[in-house]
Amino acid sequence: MNSAHKPRIGWIGAGRMGFEMARRLLDAGYEVAIYNRTQSKAEPLLEQGATIVPRPVDLADRDIVFIMVSAPKDLEEVTVGEGGVLTADGAAPGMIIDSSTVSEQASAAIREFATARGTAFLAAPVSGNPSVIAAGKLTIAASGPRETFDRAYDVLTTIGRNATYVGEGEVARLVKIAHNVFLGVVTQSLVEITALAERGGVSREAFLAFLNDSVMGSTFTRYKSPAIVNLDFTPTFTMPLLSKDFDLGLAAAHDLKVPMPIAAATAQIVASAIGAGHLTEDFAVLLLEQARRSGMTLESENADVATGLEVVTHE
């Protein structure tokens, strides 16, 4: 498609995730202007045709503005705070797509403000990490008016492999929380069975190679295998962030009266790992806590383990 027929994109938040998501739009020929609190982090995208603006409000004339920030207060600041994208006189974006990690309440408040300015609003949290984005395998859950989702679909599926409409309002936030609770439960289960196999004399590399080739293997187990085999806990998602999502998930379960005994038990294990000092490593460090409780001392197997991620680029 000729770039002249594509919506003009504004991007707020060029951290590890936002940077890679914006890069995919640039690679696909979209015109992208970026605001990031630390401007230098966005500057490498200049070589791919991005422009950088000094304030979020400078993106008010864009067709679509994506937001990827880390907390509710950040979302409020870049939208309705001083110099926020929704504070311009006489101009407002056609649409805001927010992929930040925020509560349903925070999302609803910004949606109300955006709607009052005539700006469509889509909650669109994502599943993946920077490597997953680069491989074209990011997935997106979106909620809001169906017509808004339909208009945004082409842009969303340029960034990710798939975008799923999950309903009205802020329900995409619940979908993301449920996803992350499952992420923690699956990871704890994975490290338990891996430790069991190793205690019985099977290398982590061999066990995970078998698992990943079986019907139980998944994109997730494959791209976490190098971390588990080689004890490489370079962070993609940290334990405190996982613990926060467990808290949100269990609070939602309480409110909706859905018992979640396995999630509750895993939340306690995650809290224990944080208490043991695992604050900055990747959440796969749950393996070390499982080994400690099992009386095992692990060493890196220094193996060349594939992640299962192949980079997909747009023509």
Task: Identify the notable features of this structure and list them briefly.
alpha/beta, 3-stranded mixed β-sheet, Rossmann fold, globular, 6-stranded parallel β-sheet, 315 residues, N-(1-d-carboxylethyl)-l-norvaline Dehydrogenase, domain 2, single chain, 2 domains
Give your account of this protein's structure.
There is one protein chain. The chain has 315 residues and is α/β, with parallel strands linked by helices. The chain has 2 domains: 3-169, NAD(P)-binding Rossmann-like Domain (Rossmann fold, 3-Layer(aba) Sandwich), CATH 3.40.50.720; 174-293, N-(1-d-carboxylethyl)-l-norvaline Dehydrogenase, domain 2 (Orthogonal Bundle), CATH 1.10.1040. The chain has 11 helices and 9 strands. The protein has helices at 16-27, 72-79, 104-116, 130-134, 146-159, 171-199, 204-213, 219-230, 239-256, 261-275, 286-293, and strands at residues 9-12, 32-35, 51-52, 64-67, 95-98, 120-123, 126-127, 139-143, 162-167. The strands form 2 sheets. A 6-stranded parallel β-sheet has the order 3-2-1-4-5-6, with helices on both faces. Helix 6 (171-199) packs across helix 9, helix 6 (171-199) packs across helix 10 and helix 9 (239-256) packs antiparallel against helix 10 (261-275). The chain is globular, with a radius of gyration of 21 Å.
What is this structure's SSE topology?
Elements: E1 9-12, H1 16-27, E2 32-35, E3 51-52, E4 64-67, H2 72-79, E5 95-98, H3 104-116, E6 120-123, E7 126-127, H4 130-134, E8 139-143, H5 146-159, E9 162-167, H6 171-199, H7 204-213, H8 219-230, H9 239-256, H10 261-275, H11 286-293
Parallel strand pairs: 1-2, 1-4, 2-3, 4-5, 5-6, 8-9
Antiparallel strand pairs: 7-8
